[in-house]
What we know:
The complex is a heterodimer of chains A (115) and B (162). Chain A is α+β, with helices and mostly antiparallel strands. Chain A is built from six helices and three strands, in the order H-H-H-E-H-H-E-E-H. In chain A, strands 1-3-2 form a three-stranded antiparallel sheet. Chain B is an alpha+beta fold and 162 residues long. Chain B contains four helices and eight strands, in the order ββααββββββαα. Chain B has helices at 25-33, 35-41, 134-142, 144-161; strands at 3-9, 14-21, 49-54, 61-67, 73-84, 88-95, 109-119, 122-131. In chain B, strands 1-2-8-7-6-5-4-3 form an eight-stranded antiparallel sheet. In chain B, a hairpin with a 3-residue loop joins strand 5 and strand 6 (88-95). In chain B, helix 1 (25-33) crosses helix 2. The longest helix of chain B has 18 residues, at 144-161. Classes of the chains: A alpha+beta (115), B alpha+beta (162).
Amino acid sequence: MVVRMATMSDGDVDAIFHALADATRRDIVARVIEREQSVSSLAAAYAMSFAAVQKHVAVLERASLVVKQRRGREQIVHADPATLERARLLLERLETLWRHRAAAIDRVLAEDPET
Amino acid sequence: MPVLSAQSDLEALSLTFVTEHAAPIERVWQLWADPRRLERWWGPPEWPATVTAHDFTVGGRVSYHMTGPAGEVSAAWMRVTEIDAPWHVRFDEGFSHDDGTDNPAMPAGECDVRFEALDDHRTRMTVVFSYASVDDLDLVTRMGMIEGFSSAAGQIESVLAG
C-alpha cells in the first residue's frame, strides 16, 4: 500500500491532506507516511509537549489514519494509507450523491408554483 | 450548478455541503419539512424515495424507502434531534429492516442542516454529514442505491462536461 501511495500524484496526496483539519496532525501523517516513527521522535519535531503530540496521535489513531504499535520501550506510529484512500473514495461518492440532490432540489423549486 | 462548495474531512469522517438556491428560505425549508416535496429530491436517479412517516419535531421520526430499477427496496429512517424552523434541523439517520423497524447492525450517521436567507429570494443551505467510522461510511455508500446511482451520476457529469 505504501508503494501505491508513493505512486499517487502530488495532487492526490495534497487533496488527502487538505482534508485534515489540524496542521500538526497533517504534518504527523505526512511524516509517518514517509517512514514510521516513534512518538518520542515525533515529539522532538514540535514545540509542544510529548503528551500533546501523543494526543494528536491518538486522534489520528481513532480515525484509523495511523496505527500505533509498541516495540520494546518505544511506541511506533505508521500510516494506514489503505484507510486514507478508502475514506477519500467513500467521501467522494457521498459528495457525488449530494451534488445530484442539490440539482434535484433546484428542479423541484422550478417545478413548484410559487406559494 | 447550485453547489457552492463540498469539503470532506477525512479525520472527522464528515462531508460539508454548501448550496445556494433561488428561492425564499421558507420554500427551501419546505423541501425537507413537507414529505411530498422531500421524496422528490432525496432518492438518487432511478431510486425514487417514498416517505411513509414524517414527524418533523424533536424526537420525531421520518421513515422512507427507496425503490431501485429492479424493484429492490432500501428502507431507512431519520430521527430529529434539534429543530428550529426554518433555520436549522439536525437528525440521526440509519437503515431499517424490511418490516420498518430499526436495523442496529447497519451504520448510523448524523446530519446537520442550516438554512440562511441571503435575501428575499436566495437561500443558502449548509449540510454536514458525519460518520463514526470508515466502516460505517463504507456501508452507507455500499448500499445498492448509491452503487446504482454512481453510474447515473457519471452520465450526468459527462453530459455537463460535454
